[in-house]
Design a protein that fits this description.
The protein is of the alpha+beta class and about 375 residues long. The chain has eight helices and 21 strands. The protein folds into two domains: about 160 residues, Rossmann fold, CATH 3.40.50; about 110 residues, RNA polymerase II/Efflux pump adaptor protein, barrel-sandwich hybrid domain (OB fold (Dihydrolipoamide Acetyltransferase, E2P)). About 35% of the residues are buried.
Length: about 375
């Protein structure tokens, strides 16, 4: 299949964000920095997902890249061309930035056919009819609805309408596509299918993407790089596995999902905690530093062997079936409760006395913020 996206210019990040700041003033007069001096480069072909709690600035940053939100400071550069620079008096309008955007809503014209909806941005740019028809046909085929070009949006399912919106985004942009929570309005099964479609299209077409979501599973599934925002700043920017398994701080660790935290103090033999010493392989923290020995429940196991450095005895308090996983809470000595996840239902019963453990390489030492 011929690529819909245009190739990136060699030698430049496709998207360059340099010290960008955006503030809002609330009704009570308090100034809020939605984007607080963010610098971020997005390389050609990257799929960067912006993730964070509500109000962290992820949607504002996306809209600033698109040109829908003016910023007060900094620069935004697309393919080496400055499109936003308040200090230099530069502000290129959205329609001239050479990118496309897929929103939460489908934003389809009900009186236009599927093909005409997808062709609309090409029509406004006066792309010749033959080229327009060819690009529309390839885009519709790429998202799996090549036979629906003559249908109207009102006759399509929600998932099909999202595919139309995705085809329009791909055909309209010059290789840069922005996504603003595009799958939030479809059910779980369709959402899973569309994630797969987006991954496949990204692999085949190589477009550069910036994607906003509040769904952590979606973020981990799609991203080549995950950027976690907190209070308008970047808390961590790294591949998804690194963010999940090696979080930069306790805020990122807690935001990215369930974890076990054993509070203690760094010592020569590990971390001194209420349940005894905890061994962690990777750390360079000085002695007496207050830390949380953090680990994910899926890294814990029942009946650990001698090769597992951190082992304890406890009693199962709860067992919850989660479909592909089961989660257990286990009370250790000193009132410490940890969570253990296993595949399926292969685990002990509530009330059982058990041995539990976590390998040293799965323990991350984070400075205790309390």
């Amino acid at each position: 299949m011929t690529a819909v996206a245009a190739p990136a210019r060699v030698g430049h990040p496709r998207i360059g964000i340099e010290g960008v700041r955006k503030t809002f003033t609330r009704r009570d007069g308090v100034e809020v920095r939605a984007i607080d001096d963010i610098t971020l480069d997005v390389a050609p072909g990257e799929f960067v997902v912006l993730l964070g709690p509500s109000g962290c600035g992820k949607t504002t940053l996306l809209r600033a890249i698109a040109g829908l939100e003016p910023v007060q400071a900094g620069r935004i550069v697309l393919d080496g061309r400055t499109v936003e620079d308040p200090g230099g008096g530069v502000r290129v309008p959205p329609e001239r930035r050479g990118l496309s955007m897929m929103f939460q809503s489908y934003a389809l014209w009900p009186h236009l056919s599927v093909a005409d909806n997808v062709a609309y941005p090409l029509t406004t740019r006066r792309v010749p009819r033959r080229e327009r028809a060819d690009r529309v046909g390839r885009a519709l085929a790429a998202v799996g609805i090549g036979d629906l070009g003559e249908q109207f949006p009102g006759r399509l399912s929600g998932g099909q309408q999202q595919r139309v919106a995705l085809a329009r985004a791909l055909v309209a942009g010059d290789g840069i596509v922005l996504f603003d929570e595009p799958l939030s309005n479809v059910d779980a099964k369709v959402r899973d299918q569309l994630r797969g479609e987006i991954r496949r299209l990204h692999a085949e077409l190589g477009f550069t993407a910036v994607y906003v979501t509040h769904d952590q599973e979606e973020a981990l599934t799609l991203a080549t790089r995950l950027v976690v925002l907190r209070e308008g700043r970047i808390a961590q920017s790294a591949p998804p596995a690194e963010v999940y398994l090696r979080p930069a701080d306790t805020g990122v660790a807690r935001f990215m999902g369930a974890g076990n935290e054993l509070a203690g103090t760094v010592a020569a033999d590990g971390v001194r905690t209420a349940v005894g010493p905890v061994v962690a392989r990777e750390h360079a923290l000085p002695a007496d530093t207050r830390v949380l020995a953090f680990s994910r429940p899926e890294d814990w196991r029942f009946a650990p062997g001698a090769e597992v450095a951190n082992r304890w005895r406890g009693r199962v308090e709860t067992a919850v079936f989660l479909g592909p996983l089961s989660e257990y809470t286990v009370a250790l000595e000193g009132g410490v409760v940890v969570r253990v996840r296993t595949l399926g239902t292969s685990g002990p019963e509530v009330g059982d006395a058990v041995g539990v453990g976590v390998p040293a390489e799965a323990v991350r030492l984070l400075e205790d913020p309390s």
